[in-house]
């Protein structure tokens, strides 16, 4: 079975894209290796995103907020899919991605904007995790010959 590389993009690469990286790498039947990056990465990764990655058995040493420029370098892993998970990143001009990867937008509300109790904030991240997991599972269930830009874009409307 072929393993596909997926790069999840979000502006700050601290929450949604980090969760997606962990889920794609651990929950997709071995079909994907997840990566994440941001247009303006922050200094830290959300503790709630780290908590979710840990719960799914993801190697926490891989988690850091990083620029999407890292994945446009000649020695970067080849990406088969580029998926934006926040509205800001979807509207930004992305770097050139070698190899013509399939591109899609799966928008999720920013859980870092939720105010209130620790439990309410934690639940906002879990809600994003559930939505991402559903989409990643649908993508993982597609036959290899169906993995193209039209199908990964359509997944957003299936959930």
Automatic annotation (TrEMBL):
Listed SMART domains: LMWPc (SM00226)
UniProt keyword list: Arsenical resistance
Ranges of residues in domain Phosphotyrosine protein phosphatase I: 4-142
Gene3D superfamilies, per database record: 3.40.50.2300
Superkingdom of origin organism: Bacteria
Lineage: Bacteria, Pseudomonadati, Pseudomonadota, Betaproteobacteria, Burkholderiales
CDD domains: LMWP_ArsC
SUPFAM superfamilies named among the record's database cross-references: Phosphotyrosine protein phosphatases I (SSF52788)
Keyword NAD: no
One GO term of the biological process aspect: response to arsenic-containing substance
Organism: Polynucleobacter kasalickyi
Name of the protein: Arsenate reductase
Entry keyword Cytoplasm: no
One Pfam family here: LMWPc
């Amino acid at each position: 079975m072929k393993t596909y590389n997926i790069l999840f993009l979000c502006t700050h690469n601290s929450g949604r894209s980090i969760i997606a990286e962990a889920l794609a790498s651990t929950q997709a039947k071995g079909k994907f290796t997840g990566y994440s990056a941001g247009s303006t990465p922050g200094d830290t990764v959300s503790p709630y995103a780290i908590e979710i990655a840990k719960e799914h058995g993801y190697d926490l040493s891989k988690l850091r907020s990083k620029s999407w420029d890292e994945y446009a370098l000649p020695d970067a892993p080849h990406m088969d899919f580029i998926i934006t998970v926040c509205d800001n990143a979807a509207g930004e001009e992305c770097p050139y991605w070698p190899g013509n990867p399939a591109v899609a937008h799966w928008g999720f509300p920013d859980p870092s904007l939720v105010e209130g109790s620790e439990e309410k904030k934690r639940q906002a991240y879990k809600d994003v995790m559930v939505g991402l997991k559903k989409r990643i599972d649908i993508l993982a269930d597609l036959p290899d010959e169906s993995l193209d830009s039209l199908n990964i874009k359509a997944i957003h409307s299936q959930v």
